Amino acid sequence: MAMDIDENDTQSLLGTRDEEYPVLERQPSYYNPLKTFTLAKGNQKHYQQQYGDMYFMRLAKIKPTVEALAHEEWKEFEVAGEKVRRVDRVLDVRQGELSWVAGTVYMDMPLKPNILDDISKDHWISAPPPREKYLSPTGEDQIMLEDESGRLRLVGTPLQLTMLVTGCIVAVMGTENANGDFDVVDLKVPDLPHQPQRWERDDASAAISNGTGSKKRKSDSGPTRPEGGKIAIVSGLGISSDQGDTLTLDLLMEYLLGEACAPSEQSSVSKISRLIIAGNSISEGTLLATREDEKKASKKYGYDSTAYNPAPTARLDDFLATLLPSMPITLLPGETDPANVSLPQQPIHTAMFPRSRNYSAQPGSVEPGWFDSVTNPWEGDVDGWRILANCGQPIDDVFKYVEGDERLEMMEQLLRWRCGAPTAPDTLWCYPFQEKDPFVVEECPHVFFVGNQPSYDTTVIEGPAAQTVRLICVPKFRETGEIVLLDTDTLEPEIVKFHVYEGQQS
What we know:
With 506 residues, the protein is α/β, with parallel strands linked by helices.
């Protein structure tokens, strides 16, 4: 049976040939990474050094700052007509004299890991399970202040009101009591360092006119900068060999490409100028085989498929290679990723990504590539803002020293202590630096985010010289389905959540 179709109806269904559709272009990304945490390569990297030198380097770097703050605050302080005096070393403190001294905090906690645990693992003896907290339930923990001369035990109410962990540099005021302990009256931390102006590294005129504050003012004579961009931040993708865990990841990929959005939403997605992946892109691997299993296994060429599964890395490579033609990506390694365990973790080698490595920088190139595999921790400038990031290990380790689970407060204290990983190398593995401690925060960032946290959270903190820092806890995508979009104009974050409907629960 034939049907007559009106020509006007055909045009309404198929559209006119001359109709023009808007073309959306991705917001450009201005990207200027720093090499703060990059280690030397080959024979220039040694592990024979003593780790104790790191704490002395940290003390020598931060001590003058905290001493200057303490002197300004306490120079007129007196009790019962006795003025406080400064002592150079912790062992120069005298009983009954009001004084102040600066040094490194050491937490003497019986439940902290010790070398015997490592020896037991080497001898294949079952080691005790890792502890969630190092705090002693019987109150055996002690707080020490140490320098090159020795240690001094600290007591007093201010210690209970202040978050302290091993490795932070502080100045304490008080007096030594009859037990030989230093009874603390007040305590000072270095606080936030100088904060660079936005675009300072990219615009020479902004650096000349820079003051002590953190004014978000662009140089009048500088080049025109883009406005209205966004940075997408995700962590804990947790890609595994399970075929059923890719649907949410596919939704994320289609969203970033603008394929899973309405036309009105596509305009907003096109403003995302860069994707930053903050660690744990690969799910945690299985336990290594025991020696008995190794003896039973037959030797063969190539890798053993029972010990190595290439599927997760291949899926991550496919995910990156699909996004890279549309947007640049910065990839940080995490605790479960194929990189060195000790901090700072070095970039995941591009040989792991046969498809995505075509977008990385050529060897010896100064300019970063469209695909930039970086260190953990990492810092750099994105759209003019100084960003400091890590994938969660320093915060997770600080969590074990303190009561509660206020992750934003821990992040704030890292900046106010001016140390990105204070518990390294005591309870957090790291490289034994000899000449410079890269974990010392020398310039205050505008944004500080930490990946692989239990939940999303954010706040803004301020410093004594008008510094402002946006703190962001980035949740694990595999568990929450959430990514963070950071507006590069206002530094206001927002959450985008992806959820797969699994039907009604019976």
